[in-house]
């Protein structure tokens, strides 16, 4: 979960509305920092179709980050 | 610095400096990290003042320490790639004429999205299909710029797909549309571009398959359906007489 050995992490939250609609989408990713993941730069933490789902995903990620440290 | 010797800075798909020498093209991709960060920052941010650069690159140390790190990085850059960086008063910048792939990509993307600009002859330039900005770099200034370029690439590829399809270059159009899909697989506009290309080449069956695949993906990942705009795009084609039954949802 951490970017490096320090106590920090990065969570990227991308949100968008599909063109001309009120259909909400989101993808939450975190950078991949382990040496095995050479074929990708980001790991999807969650996808969501509502703002509430995004909030829950952020809380889940943050909870895991705090537990790991 | 003469044009033939002008370096080219590559930041998409990773850091590299290409320098043409008497012996051919030399690629520098193993500069010390501090030197790479300085060069990349200048390639993205123009001609900021030394204080701003030091603060961006070394945000977690005292100002004097950051400025010392900047002096050290600049010294290394000037040793390994003399003439790459210009020092002017209190500002630093890449030398005039240095090409940066991000700038080339941005110029291409703007042309692709310009509705008045036609599709370019020849194949899509490599810079349009390269990967993300500086993969594996997690500095804030890189993350923000990476997202900006990512969004730009998605929109440009979607626009390009439509232009190529209108020009009858459907094979290239499909490649551009799927490149947009790969950037964000849940983004419907990219999948609509795929469907439109198949319809432009008269392949209703393939358009329906692409729609069904996206519908199944949305169901599996988000538990939602495509928008009415997406569904109507396919249904209109079917009503127009090229009837292909829509495959039933997976599972």
Notes on the structure:
- The complex is a heterodimer of chains A (69) and B (251).
- Chain A has 69 residues and is an alpha+beta fold.
- Chain A is built from 1 helix and 3 strands.
- Chain A has one domain (12-68).
- Chain A has a 3-stranded antiparallel beta sheet with strand order 1-2-3, covered by helices on one side.
- The model of chain A has no long low-confidence stretch (mean pLDDT 83).
- Chain B has 251 residues and is an alpha+beta fold.
- Chain B has 2 domains: 3-97, Winged helix-like DNA-binding domain superfamily/Winged helix DNA-binding domain (Arc Repressor Mutant, subunit A), CATH 1.10.10; 103-239, Serine Threonine Protein Phosphatase 5, Tetratricopeptide repeat (Alpha Horseshoe).
- Chain B has helices at 33-45, 50-57, 63-80, 101-113, 126-129, 140-166, 170-183, 188-200, 204-222, 228-239; strands spanning 8-10, 16-21, 24-28, 85-88, 91-94, 99-100.
- Chain B has a 4-stranded mixed beta sheet. In chain B, strands 4-5 form a two-stranded antiparallel ribbon.
- Chain B starts with 7 loop residues before the first strand and ends in a 12-residue tail after the last helix.
- The model of chain B has no long low-confidence stretch (mean pLDDT 89).
- Chains A and B meet through strand 1 and strand 2 of A and loops of B.
Which spans of chain B have pLDDT < 50 for at least 5 consecutive residues?
none
**C-alpha geometry of chain A:** elongated
Q: What proportion strand of chain B?
A: 5-15%
Please give the order of strands in the largest beta sheet of chain B.
3-2-1-6
- Number of helical segments with 4 or more residues of chain A: 1
The proportion of residues in beta strands of chain A is 25-35%
What is the C-level CATH assignment of the largest domain in chain B?
Mainly Alpha
CATH A-level architecture of the largest domain in chain B: Alpha Horseshoe
Number of H/I helices of chain B: 10
């Amino acid at each position: 979960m951490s970017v490096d050995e320090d106590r920090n992490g990065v969570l990227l939250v991308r949100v968008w509305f599909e063109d001309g609609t009120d259909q909400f989408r989101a993808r939450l990713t975190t950078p991949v920092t382990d040496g095995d993941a050479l074929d990708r730069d980001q790991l999807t933490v969650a996808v969501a179709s509502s703002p509430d789902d995004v909030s829950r995903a952020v809380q889940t990620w943050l909870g895991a980050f705090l537990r790991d440290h | 610095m003469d044009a033939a010797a002008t370096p080219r800075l590559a930041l998409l798909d990773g850091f590299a400096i290409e320098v043409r020498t008497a012996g051919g093209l030399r690629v520098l991709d193993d500069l010390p990290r501090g030197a790479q960060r300085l060069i990349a920052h200048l390639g993205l941010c123009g001609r900021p003042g030394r204080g701003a650069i030091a603060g961006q690159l070394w945000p977690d140390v005292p100002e004097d320490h950051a400025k010392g790190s900047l002096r050290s990085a600049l010294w290394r850059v000037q040793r390994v790639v003399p003439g790459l960086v210009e020092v002017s008063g209190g500002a630093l910048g890449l030398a005039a004429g240095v090409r940066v792939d991000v700038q080339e990509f941005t110029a291409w993307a703007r042309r692709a999205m310009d509705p008045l600009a036609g599709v370019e002859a020849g194949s899509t330039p490599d810079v349009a299909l390269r990967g993300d900005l500086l993969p594996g770099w997690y500095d804030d200034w890189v993350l923000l710029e990476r997202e900006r370029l990512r969004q730009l690439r998605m929109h440009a590829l979607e626009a390009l797909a439509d232009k190529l399809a209108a020009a009858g270059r459907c094979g290239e159009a499909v490649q551009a549309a799927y490149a947009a899909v790969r950037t964000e697989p849940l983004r419907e506009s990219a999948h609509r571009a795929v469907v439109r290309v198949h319809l432009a080449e008269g392949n209703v069956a393939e358009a329906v398959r692409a729609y069904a695949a996206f519908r199944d993906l949305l169901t599996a990942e988000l538990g939602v359906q495509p928008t009415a705009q997406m569904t109507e795009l396919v249904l209109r084609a079917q009503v127009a007489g090229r009837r292909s039954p829509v495959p039933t949802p997976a599972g």
